[in-house]
Amino acid sequence: MSVVVNLKSFGILTPLRLHVREIHNRCRIGNRDWVGFGINGSANYKDDPLFPFPAVRFKENTRDVCALREKEKGDWRMLCCEEKKALYRASFCQTYSEFQHPTGQWKIIAGIGIGMTSFTFWIMMLNHYYVFEPLPASCSKTSQKAQLRRMLELRVAPIDGLSSHWDYDNDRWKVALVLALIGMVVANPVPPLGLGLASPILPPVSTVINHGVTIPVVTAPVVRHIVAAPIVTAPYIRTPIYTGYGWGNG
């Protein structure tokens, strides 16, 4: 003897129907009034400022709601404020100010993000002290300096790389020369609007830059000589050229 049991009567659904989203029309709205098109033409309700009129009313038609609807057909001055609010709540769930008000959901998201960040930080600290092996000796500061010195001695990338920034004559970086020029400009500023051809004459003093390099100050004005040479055009002279078939003019 076989017994057929309806799982739906016990509230048990199959796993395939548990995660499937479907569109239901009148079979799920009960006795609510279908009053408009809504969002996509189906019988659904949603508080959305882009679609201010949902397809169905929010509440079902109960006796109290039907009585208020009949009273609504008459003079609205006979309705009190509470009855008007009840009529609105029967058709809509929230007002514009209610469903557009900030929910503060960003606080939960920010808290979860900060918590996950701190969790990963402590995981990395745990791995650093108890899981990862110590770094090799080549990663120490002394070893890195020795490696850098070895690369400079081998002249690695001499054109525009590492060795191009090293002054082999003075055994230092070339950046010191740039700093010296910057210090000279700061110590001897040009007057405002000094756009002439000659630099201003300064007294013969020396300026000591912060890095200890003494740079003499030029006492004589530096004048850019402009040479105006006449433009001479030579006459075009044709020369005979042998082309293989005879002599011709070039």
UniProtKB/TrEMBL annotation:
Signal peptide residues on this chain, from the entry's feature table: none
Biological pathway: Energy metabolism; oxidative phosphorylation
UniProt subcellular location: Mitochondrion inner membrane
GO cellular component, one term: mitochondrial inner membrane
GO biological process, one term: mitochondrial electron transport, cytochrome c to oxygen
Keyword Glycoprotein part of the UniProt annotation: no
UniProt cross-references to Pfam families, sorted A to Z: COX4
Gene Ontology MF term list: oxidoreductase activity
Keyword Iron-sulfur: no
Entry membrane topology: Single-pass membrane protein
Keywords tagged on the record: Membrane, Mitochondrion, Mitochondrion inner membrane, Oxidoreductase, Transit peptide, Transmembrane, Transmembrane helix
Positions of transmembrane segments: 108-130
Primary subcellular site in the record, as a coarse category: mitochondrion
Family from the record: Belongs to the cytochrome c oxidase IV family.
Function (record text): Component of the cytochrome c oxidase, the last enzyme in the mitochondrial electron transport chain which drives oxidative phosphorylation.
Subunit structure: Component of the cytochrome c oxidase (complex IV, CIV), a multisubunit enzyme composed of 14 subunits.
UniProt cross-references to PANTHER family, sorted A to Z: CYTOCHROME C OXIDASE SUBUNIT 4 (PTHR10707:SF10), CYTOCHROME C OXIDASE SUBUNIT IV (PTHR10707)
Full protein name: Cytochrome c oxidase subunit 4
Species in which this protein is naturally found: Arctia plantaginis (Wood tiger moth)
